User: What shape does this take?
Amino acid sequence: MNDADTHDDDTDRMLLQRMAAGDRGALAVLYRSYHGRLCRFLSRLTRRPDVIEEVINDCFWIAWQKASGFRGDSRVSTWIMGIAYRCGLKALRQHGDEPIEDDPVRDERNSAHDPGEDRELRDWLAKGLERLSVDQRVVVELVYGVGHSLDDVAVIMQCPVGTVKARLFYARVKLRNVLPALAGESITHRENVP
Amino acid sequence: MTLPNRCARAWEAMPWVLQGTAAPQDNEWLTQHLAQCEACRTEFEQQSRLRLALSLPADVGLDPNAGLDRLMARLDEPEPAEAPQPVRTSPWLSRALAAAVLVQAIGIGILGARLWSENPAPAYRTLSQEAAPAVQGAIHVVPDAGMKLADWDALLRRLGLQVVNGPNDVGAYTVVATSDAQDTLKRLRAAQGIRLAEPVDAHP
Assistant: This one.
């Protein structure tokens, strides 16, 4: 944990204390600061925006209720990601992991904001992650995307560190086998576009 | 997957070097190894691309303010009540029926015990059975046919007599004296309206 992480965690702890005292302003600050990373994290579990928002709200509803019970055994971010992970799995059981139907409005919006290179990178990543199990996708996101340590991921997923290492190892092996070919496909596809 | 030791060490170190959380010596060692190993260099480039792709913002396009409004509204909702228990009439019905059966059984038991204790002898007698023994001090009394019922009742009360049988076919009653039987017998014979008074155990 570097200095910036320590500073962020101190801020988060202060916000949690205020939430425990019933301060909704603190809840709003914490909600906004985590919204982006939770959106991205949960998008590795499901592509349905309605389910993602439901899970984020479930997560912060629980955080609001349990703020006074936070013991400080881990960073606040680890605690929140753990709640989101469990809420996400519950939502997957309830709604299934069906992909959303194509949304022209959303696609147009993303196209407008995404440079072509980012779109290519997203497609490449999405095709690679499709090859992974849910748990493998979660580990990859938490380590590479969010920047958590193995110990943090073990706390979030409530499993031994050895299990996390194994999931990360097999996810990397699988990605190593498919990503170069996917990159080739992507490049070929782009070259074919007039 | 089998890697040479040095490449395996490089494989282990890559995520943490990319995160910026690897120890400085691990960072330096990997840099040196990548300079010498093309396979690990290719792998590291792919890992860097993976990290870059994973760090792109989510493309789900959710509005945090709208979500926050919904969360705040949810906080204002009353606590969700405990899910109502499904209506289960059968256990209550079963309990009520069981209680009713129990009460009935107890009542029948008590009633049976009382009847048993109050009437131990059967109320009927067959012809082959001996006649019931006469009560000690019992008297057969035959009042006049014209004696009024009120006079008969007054006589019974005055002499302390209790009718235990009768009248039979000839109009005789069997009475029991609550006081001295011989004295009662004399007074009974002397009473007006009494045609006959004889002790039951006396042979005519």
Q: What stands out?
A: The longest helix of chain B spans residues 89-118. The CA atoms of residues 48 and 202 of chain B lie 133 Å apart.
